[in-house]
## 1
Amino acid sequence: MKPFGREMTSENNLGKTKPVVIRMLEALLFPKKCLKCGIYMEEDGVHPHTLESCFCGHCMKEGVHPITPPFCISCGIRFHNSFNENHVCGVCLKNPLKLGQVRAVAEYKGIIQDGIQLFKYHSKLSIAKIFEHLLFQTFLQHYDKLPIDLIMPMPLHRAKMRKRGFNQAYFLSRNFKKLYQHSFHRLPSWDMDMDSLVRIKKTLPQTGFDIEERKRNLKNAFKIIREDRIKAKHILLVDDVFTTGATCNEAAKELLKKGAKRVDALVLART
Ligand SMILES: [Zn+2]
Ligand SMILES: [Zn+2]
């Protein structure tokens, strides 16, 4: 462990500080384990809000695969070719999305895929904060210059919420305002909205469905309960994974029908 020195405190994401001695005690009492393989990990020198603070070097070898150009300017899928220009993909040309644009942090593979599964299905909530930081960076990269009015985590149906115990999209964006204030020392021009959009239909799991079946499954799945709030607004939906986009697209359809000006999406991973 590092000796006491000039650096007597460590900074967390919101600028609060925790004395080094507390951190040392915590490390002794609750030694950190890799969330995937369970091996004990050294915490020295690892920034607390990085994937390296959750996964050991061996598991990190699976890597993160960020969405870098070229990608589809509509659905955000990454192109694996040498043509270096972003453009609209064939799927979007054939079936245009209701969403304006989708942007993702990374491809749904490697340690991001493992992390999402541990987070969602094994309630490893400690990783949520790290994912939120990554998502916030991608937000700044693609949405900071756009006139966004409202940010909405994708809602879960009541029954799903009861079963899982938490909404992953909410955990991925609940501190966005604080993160923004911490980065820019001012309030953002947008607001968070957690209750205007609700999911009213208990849908079947989308796995194994083709695009048309997914659309049918999700038909009328969402309801706007605060129409006054969304009228003429530019809305950004937040979700964990975007596959065909049927879920976000159905929510966008409902929002636009009820008067929203434009709906985009920000997701952690793109399959
Ligand atoms: Zn590991
Ligand atoms: Zn596309």
## 2
Amino acid sequence: MKKIPIAILLGLFLKGFPCLAGESAVRTIVTTFYPIQIAVLNVTAGVEGIHVVNLAAPTTGCLHDYQLTPRDRAILSRADRVVANGAGMESFLDSLAWLRPAVRIIDASAGIDLLVSGGVTNSHVWLSPSRHIRQIQTIAAGLAAWDPVNAGLYQANALRYEGELKTLKAEMTRGLGELKTRDIITFHEAFPYFADELGLKVVAVIEREPGTEPSAGELAALIRQVKASGVKALFVEPQYPAKSAEAIARETGAGLYRLDPVVSGPVAPHAYLDVMRLNLIQLRRALN
Ligand SMILES: [Zn+2]
């Protein structure tokens, strides 16, 4: 057998253990789904050696009833920190006792007053810019406590992004200041926080969660409800098929517009801001 020089063997050994080799180790922050991934990308911008990996595929949308895939489990087994939206969005969080003991889960919605309707806590917290600012602060504090060396950077990033979210909120409040109507109908129970912040009224939700289309009888009742409400604007989401929305629009003469709950899209730090500005344009078109 050919002899391998000891230096090469040692080099190969150290390559598998970058800490021992003196390189800074890459640490993995796992985010549960798209809006949290975008939030964490902002908070960790410019921090060396941080790898942000998202669980759910970008096309998943909301995580209601989401089951972890083998790929998710493999990603979670390499996590150093997990950042979740919380507020009941990730029902699988309770089943993560098998994570490495040092791994903590940062619950971005901790301490936020949650909206409850019909006994069900609504988990779409990120759609209110003010509450999303609280989420950003919680994420930054959690990461700073875990990684004190970069605490200043996390906090500075959070502060910068908070400023952008405040500007967005002011723009939306101003843009929606004077509308002919503030009544909207949506197709997913995603917008109570959004409506609460912007003074809109969700008169009805057609499809409470994606994949639960109304029956023919329910559809007829919804058409009566929309007609009686006088609401002229129906908001569908780009992520979900709009079959029942189209039927209701046809039968009631209401307009069909797009409201995006920011659960999928390009993986870019400014994605949340961009989508919310498009939502503002749609709302102004629909409600004036
Ligand atoms: Zn949802």
